[in-house]
Amino acid sequence: MSTITKIEGYQRDVKQLRVAAYCRVSTDNFEQLESLQNQREHYQEYISHHPNWQLAKIYYDEGISGTKLTKRNALKELLGDCCNHRIDLIVTKSISRLSRNTTDCLQIVRELQQLNIPIIFEKEHINTGAMASELFLSILSSIAQDESHSTAGNLRWAIRKRFASGEFRVSSAPYGYKLRDGNLLIYPAEARTVKHIFHKFLTGTSATQIAKDLNGHQVATQRGGHWRSNTVLNILRNINYTGDMLCQKTYRDDQYHRHFNHGELAQYLIENHHPSLISYQAFDQAQKIIKENAQKCHIEVGTHKYQQHYPFSGKIICGYCSTTFKRQTRPNKICWACQKHLKSAKQCPIKAISEESLEAAFCSMMNKLIFSQRFLLQPLLEELQNQANSNSNGELGKLAEQIKANDHKAETLTQLMQSGLLDKAIYVNQTAKLEQDTYQCRQKIKLLNSQNTDSANNFEEVRSLLRWCQKGQTLTSFDPNLFQTFAQQIIVNDPTEVIFKLKCALELTEKLTKKAAVYQQFYRGIIKQRFNEPIKQAEYLYSIIESEGDLIG
């Protein structure tokens, strides 16, 4: 007799999608944090209802605005996990939760589409994996950005009205005070430190030395960090220690960047707002000293930033750690040193270089250019001119024609679909392809235009450099104005040599010597080599000059 065996239903192996949820609240008050907890619980339940979904992780940012990507650590962590292929799908409440900035939103979506990771926006019912066009997302994202601007504007208006009426309530206390029921009360431990800072500064101690002394006595800042000269100066500049409250000392622009208010907006002074720590006389004297020190150190008034007082200021970059070099006065010489190396040689091994050797290297480089102008700078100028005349004109025309053709095809598809001669699915598919092709054409046009602008700028800078070299006036001493005219940066990869990045895009390597050589002749046995880029060819020729430097008279 035949045996019948019952076979259980076949269970198909469905791929489990690793799903991540992203939540964000813009403030850290109790109600918002409660909303964040509700969002997290919602996504745990929402994802569990899909049999082929597996919860990977719930990412959340607390008390962070959606206008900027830089400070949203959870979102950056999510994008990093996506790049490392740990996520297959992202779910979020709405476009505004992801970003209130149109540019950031589209950039995130495009990056994830390249990784084949779709985003589901619940509120708008959008799945970017099934989205045929970015247009709809762009419109909704712009609406979210406009809503954010409107809300921020309303809040700023309300705050300024409270400034004008004197009803403004302080939300945070400066160092030396504590906030209780909206009122500033003196905090004795910190108040003693504030008075100590003013006393030391008025008796001749610098802000840097005051910071060192406070750190040496292990006095904590308001946030538990270390004291710096800027921290001390901020206390010395704060008029609130006189008992008056100055409102709107800073403001945010439409891009949410904070600026010091130097008269752009009205300021409001509320006198005798809270108990004072410093007298008006002491505060005014401190401001006078700060102003005098700023003039001595060439600090730009109103910005608290140093002017580029020395020719090399802000232009010497460490090739090892990319830190700017700092000027130092040492016994019998002036040096420039990497700021990280000054803190610790373990952080950066690049040692200091003397200012004299830098000046000599610049003179040496310029003299070499004088004697090599005929076969280095003149050919370079001709190549750049030919490149500017012929470069990409034909390609720009082709791209423009391609965009016109795509627009014409899109119109034809629309007419065919409206007349019932074309299936809607085919119409959506073909339209999406045309939009993608048009987008790529526009990106290529932007790139070509940018390249043309760079080539034109390089051409003008090389022509300016060639005109100077044609004068034939070799340098016997360093000329700061000449350096500012032609040099953009100095890269230090080694204490024995530097790379001069010129404004014409040339990068020329020079050895560091104590005295600048004045070249009267030039070694003409130069090996010529062709390159696709004129700049690269000129740099190669200069490297031959540098290697044959001992043969130059």
From TrEMBL:
Keyword Secreted attached: no
SMART domains the UniProt entry points to: Resolvase
Recombinase domain: residues covered: 174-296
One MF annotation (Gene Ontology) recorded for this entry: DNA binding
InterPro entries: DNA_bind_recomb_sf (IPR038109), DNA_bind_recombinase_dom (IPR011109), Resolv_N (IPR006119), Resolvase-like_N_sf (IPR036162), SSR_resolvase (IPR050639), Zn_ribbon_recom_dom (IPR025827)
UniProt cross-references to Pfam families, sorted A to Z: Recombinase, Resolvase, Zn_ribbon_recom
Tagged with keyword Transmembrane: no
Segments forming domain Resolvase/invertase-type recombinase catalytic: 18-166
Coiled coil: none
Superkingdom per UniProt: Bacteria
Protein name: Recombinase family protein
Species: Lactiplantibacillus garii
Upper lineage: Bacteria, Bacillati, Bacillota, Bacilli, Lactobacillales
